[in-house]
Amino acid sequence: MSLSGKVAIAGAFEHPTRWAPEKTELQIMAESARGALADCGLSLRDVDGLASAGISMGAMGIVQLAEYLNLKPRWLDGTNIGGSSFLAHVSHAAAAVHAGLCEVALILYGSTAASNALAIGTGLGGGGRDPAAAFVGPYGLTTVGSYALVARRHMERYGTRSEQLAEIAVTMRRHAALNPDAKMRRPITVADVLESRMISEPLHLLDCCIISDGGGALVVTRAARARELRKPPVMVLGCGEAVAHQELGAPDLLTIAARQSGAQALGMAGVAHADLDLCTVYDSFTITVLATLENLGFCKPGEGGSFVSGGRIGLGGELPVNPDGGGLSSNHPGMRGIFLAIEAVRQLRGECGPRQVEGARLALAHGTGGTLGVAHSGATLVLGRD
Amino acid sequence: MPHKYASVEGVATFVHHAGRTTLPEVVPDLSRGEVVLCLHASGGNGAVFAELLQALAPDHSPLAIDFPGHGRSGGLDSLGSIEAMAGFAGAFLDKWGIARAVVLGHSMGGAVALRLALERPAAVRGLVLCASAPRFTGAAVPAVSRVVEGKDRRPFFRDAYSPKASPEVLRRGFLEDLKTDPRALLGDLLACRAFDAEADLARIAAPTLVVVGDAEEPAMRAGSERLAAGIRGATLCRVAAAGHMLPLEQPAALAGAVREFLGTLP
User: Fold this and answer.
1) Residues of A in contact with B180 (CB under 8 A)
2) What structural domains and CATH numbers belong to chain A?
3) What is the pLDDT of residue A132?
4) Gyration radius of chain B's alpha carbons
């Protein structure tokens, strides 16, 4: 009965734009949809399922999106659990396709976060009506402030150093230099990160992701259908979702949602950590990567600092992470989950040119939604070649 | 102000204009008086000319563009050289079918206007060089480099305004600065530093008006004076209570001088 291997991602497209003041979010989504459908050789007429989430999408956003695209889907998913939403959409779409609720599901994201000057990291995390925001927000905790608390806690408990976090930013920039679409491509050093101005101690400017415009699209369908399409299918082998929250006032800042969703996805896929050829993880801040890799089980709690050092997570290393340059250097239009799946798909198809992970067969994508340190979500996918 | 996008050299280019709104790809009416193309300063955008465009609109067809990487135009970085910017401005004129225009440049925009007049004299009916110079010092390069490297906050250049500038003017200038990535500002400053037209001034044939504020910093003021002295027949207009951001600080005085200049064109 398991979903594993029954459903595939058949089309994927990352919008090349990083700055698009002349476009609306809906335009970016429509262009991305066209890109992903062309990628697999389908057309909008084939689409009967639609999923999306966005920062500025209202309660009926998915309905408005369907109207904009002139679509009449028979399956809809407007789940919004933050930046991880799109990985959750893939698992929801896989279940829907497997159950026959739809045949071809289109997952979309588009945003003009940069040209609208959205202050994502320095704004308050979460909505004003939930208890965390209502009781924490008035005291001034920002999104970056909460991640800084997680980083500080990791340093206090395990002796993790700023240099180790900086290695993550340096690695992402090195990857971005190989990605012609990346927003920030000039190489940086650990010293550059440590000398960049402090945003929220211990996180420096270069420990924080960039803000860009952009968007992307994924097409999910049955494995058998996907095999008949233009590109080699990428199988959905495992998926998992989770939340982590304040635990009635006694949270452990270092245990994040990835622990639960990652274990579920890997268990479902029947895959061990050592089998994975690459990983795409949410990198809103350098600490996000470190905490995620630990919680996914790539190393033990507290070992993250040394795990990310010495080139292990760089191209050519043991576990290349975010070969596209991630949100720290390539693109981060407010929510980044969809790009984690897109890059994993393109790597598994071997389409990535100079940043290709040689012979990649299995990849894990993990998205974080919301804010580490307060309530957040996690969604994990294990993807593999047919 | 009305505005629209034009695709120039593959970049979605934001155009401020004063005509009626038109459908995409349809050029607005440019038949009144002279076409006046305004080019902004380093790290700026065409919105600083809003009052000027409004004041000229009844009798003329004024336009301003945001260079790539600036304001509301596409692109992430500066074009990187004054030559490339002049080429871009020329490509915009071609795209909109404008055979001849009066070109008004503020600071870096003045350098671009000069370069355009040298490269394509037939396209430039007149020049207005506002708070500009034939050569720039590049004094801001080190400070902006530090911003781009992430080591400093983005500075607000208060010295670019007259001491008499009102808080509203400063606030508007600050908000316009924010529309452009500091990397594009740095690229502009480097382009300005590499620019030198001192030896070319005598070759400018277009009627020229040079406008400079009385609170302009000394090097730039001397540069404006050299422009007026070096370009045949150029007139120099001094504006009171204005620093380097003259178009924002004294738009009415600038508009008055420009209208008068347009009236003298043969």
Assistant:
1) none
2) 7-117+209-381 (3.40.47.10)
3) 62
4) 17
User: Which candidate from B5, B14, B150 shows the least CB-CB separation from A197?
Assistant: B150
Contact A21 B150 (CB under 8 A): no
The average pLDDT across A58-63 equals: 90
**DSSP codes joined into one string, A343-374:** HHHHHHHT--GGG--TT--EEEEEEEEE-TTS
At residue A75, does pLDDT exceed 80? yes
Q: Does B10 touch chain A if contact means CB atoms closer than 8 Å?
A: no
> Structural domain tally of chain B?
1
The confidence score (pLDDT) of residue A131 equals 66
Chain A residue numbers with beta carbons less than 8 Å from the beta carbon of B152 are: 197
Q: Do B74 and A20 touch (CB under 8 A)?
A: yes
Does residue A128 surpass a pLDDT of 60? no
Size of interface A-B (CB pairs under 8 A): 37
Q: What is the mean pLDDT of residues B231-260?
A: 98
Backbone phi, psi, residue B128, to 5°: -120, 115
Query: How does residue A133 score in pLDDT terms, banded at 50, 70 and 90?
Result: low
pLDDT number for residue B209: 98
- Residue B253 sits at φ, ψ, to 5 deg, of -65, -40
Residues of chain A with Cβ-Cβ distance to B187 below 8 Å are: none
Calpha distance B193→B22 (Å, rounded):
39
Residue B105's domain is classified under what CATH number?
A: 3.40.50.1820
